[in-house]
UniProtKB/TrEMBL annotation:
One of its GO terms (molecular function) is fructose-bisphosphate aldolase activity. InterPro entries: Aldolase_TIM (IPR013785), FBA_I (IPR000741). Keywords: Glycolysis, Lyase. Belongs to the class I fructose-bisphosphate aldolase family. PANTHER family: FRUCTOSE-BISPHOSPHATE ALDOLASE. Its EC number is 4.1.2.13. Pathway: Carbohydrate degradation; glycolysis; D-glyceraldehyde 3-phosphate and glycerone phosphate from D-glucose: step 4/4. This is Probable fructose-bisphosphate aldolase class 1. GO terms for biological process: glycolytic process. It holds the Pfam family Glycolytic.
């Protein structure tokens, strides 16, 4: 049991405050190197610092962004803008600093093409250090692939157990845990298969929450929308995505969780916004705030506009602010595609 459950609940509510969502800026070194390389930018510490600074110092971003999930390197940097560390810069703007704490995926022995998220060893001490560096919430990601032979029950059980144990360590350390079980878009499965696997996964997760005495009121769920596989011939409209997603959530997610923040999971920035909007348009009398925690769907236009050039920073920040604003409108169910072409 956390020392101050009330304080964690307040942070949780602030992360899903009306009109706001979370920026996932926690790309691992190999991931950000891949994205930089596509733009001809070398992934040095200085370039990564410059890019994170671009995002974190965008004017007015605090209107739409409640929290930012960082990578270990970013949280540890001695300074960003104005000679201050990232957590300090964010706090001064009313944005809550967060940290990714899992240690990535490994192949699951005996289960081909399935993976397990590692990082539980030494987690308690790492969390204490992150709290000292200014983090107020954390994130742990699990990936579940769909194929003819997967996912299997043992792998689902193991990964959901890991999420629950991580959540317990977070709450004990005074951090709000975001649990992120993601059913991947990879594959040719249809939308019904995604719904079935996601429901099974979430049912196991909240069973583990109960078994491991996790306080759901001081936690957030980050999860995939219900979508057909990217190699499927099936195309789902935002309305169908919304219908399937809400039905799945209502059937499997604890009503005690204050909020659900969707991941973009391979969707384009526009698709992620349109689907979020459709979900919120359809959602009525649900017990959760339905928000966003996007990475590429928020960052991609800004990253392309920046391309590693100092003279492009202001333009890139406008692109970032635009996507944040569009998703803020979408989480209220008030987005229209024509808004994308309106000048701010």
């Amino acid at each position: 049991m956390p020392a101050d459950i009330t304080a964690l609940q307040e942070i949780t509510k602030a992360l899903v405050a009306p009109g706001k969502g979370i920026l996932a800026a926690d790309e691992s070194l190999p991931t950000i190197e891949k994205r930089f390389k596509a733009l001809g930018v070398e992934s040095t510490e200085e370039e990564r610092r410059a890019y994170r600074e671009l995002l974190f110092t965008t004017p007015e971003i605090e209107k739409y962004i409640s929290g930012i999930i960082m990578f270990d390197e970013t949280l540890r940097l001695a300074s960003l803008a104005q000679g201050k560390p990232a957590a300090k810069i964010l706090e001064e703007r009313g944005i809550i600093p967060g940290i990714k704490v899992d240690m990535g995926k490994v192949d699951f022995p005996g289960f081909p093409n399935e993976e397990f998220t590692q990082g539980l060893d030494g987690l308690g001490k790492r969390l204490e250090e992150y709290v000292g560096l200014g983090a107020q919430f954390a994130k742990w990601r699990v990936v579940i692939a769909i194929s003819e032979s997967s996912p299997t029950r043992p792998v689902l059980e193991a990964n959901m157990t890991g999420l629950a144990i991580y959540a317990g360590f977070c709450q004990q350390a005074g951090l709000v845990p975001i649990v992120e079980p993601e059913v991947l878009m990879d594959g040719n499965h249809d939308i019904a298969k995604c719904a079935g696997v996601t429901k099974q996964m979430l049912e196991i997760l909240f069973k583990k929450f109960f078994e491991y005495k996790i306080v759901p009121e001081a936690s957030l769920l980050k999860v995939n929308m219900i979508l057909p596989g990217k190699d499927s011939a099936q195309k789902a409209s935002p309305e169908e995505v919304a219908k399937q997603t809400l039905e799945t959530l209502k059937s499997a997610v604890s009503v005690a969780i204050p909020g659900i923040v969707f991941l973009s999971g391979g969707q384009s920035p526009l698709e992620a916004t349109a689907n979020l909007d459709a979900i919120n348009k359809l959602a009525s009398s649900v017990p959760w705030q339905l928000s966003f925690s996007y990475g590429r769907a928020l960052q991609e236009p800004a990253l392309v506009a920046w391309a590693g050039k100092v003279e492009n920073v202001a333009f890139a920040q406008k692109k970032f602010l635009k996507r944040a604003k569009m998703n803020s409108v979408a989480r209220d169910g008030k987005w229209e595609e024509r808004m994308e072409n309106e000048r701010d």
